[in-house]
Write a structure and sequence with these properties.
Length: 399
Amino acid sequence: METIQQIIKKFEATKDKQVYSEIIERIKTEELLWVSYIPFTNNYYLDFENGKPACYLFTEKKYYDEYQDYMMQQQIIVKPVENNEEQRMLMFGDLYRSGFEMIVIDNGQTHLVISLFDIIDKPDFSDVPEINRPIMNPALVCAANHFFQGLNTKRVTRDMEANMFKEIYHVKYLMPLDASKMNMEKTNADNGECIIKENSMMQFPLITNSEDKSFYPFFTDWNEFRRFDKEQKFSGNIVTFDDIKYFVDKSDGISINPYGVNITLTKDMCNVIESVAKGSPQNTVIKEQAAEKDTKVMLGEPAEYPQKMVDEICKYLKTNKNVNAAYLRLMVKDNEQSYLIVVDFSGDKNEVFSGIANAGVPFSNGKYLDFVPLSSSFGKGAVENVEPFYKKKKFGIFG
């Protein structure tokens, strides 16, 4: 039997529609396929073909291995997800849920770019009453993956951030609700309206991170919801950004898809998101910084010291036992100013940097926040003879 790669070569030579149909059928029924996955976002690796979100699928493991070697050279960490025929259509459904529209087959070989919707029908809920439509947010999941993937690979832009913020603001979510102590009477079977009777109690679960901070979880769809509620203990309450603003005040914050890309929001971040969604310019991209060869970087003290930003960051750092010290510098790179924060820490870099960013971004006056570990040569050089703005207190006779 011909391999899929051989059939792709035949199609490239002939552009025969029947050959193309054969490729589609083999993609549906092949015993094993491999998909590129990026652990940082807990989702498939995302790129764009013809301006549309694309994933990377491989028909043989050796083709994937060559692709992964290339990605490693680009300093992009991916891993393969093996997909069998039995799980194939579930995978294509998951791609749709995550906002993908295109599939690149056997990148690095004679490759073929196809539409996801040549394999599955694009869901159309226009004739379904709104109360019965499933909560699904492909555009938000895609925008979040694009932003955090860019953050991870140091290729993030303000447009990526603004796009994610606008999606966060406009969509509907699922919020878990323990309805076991609610006494309800259905009043309208068509639209699901109910009356909540006396002595009812609504309970919304919290999740806790490694720093003992508590967050209300929100989910973009039922797939993400079930990652949290594996035993199906909770109902899914349909909510909006207004509900996020309400609950963000009731805990340390909220988390969107905590078992996926994990977008953690504080009250200040919610204000930034609302401002961007309503059209106010916002320059708050956060990124890790590394000095590139032959790139001129100038460092100094900020002329206008961002005291409020520093105060808010210090409040956060006092709650994080993994941070020993933090330093602030004004950095000018390619004629663009940003705040460089050099951090002496242990543990998870992404968690530390994200926590500082959540605290500081709303008060950065439109400047980038760049991060670098003190352990790096760039970090050490940047803060030579500079006092930290935060230093963890030590206790004991040697403190």
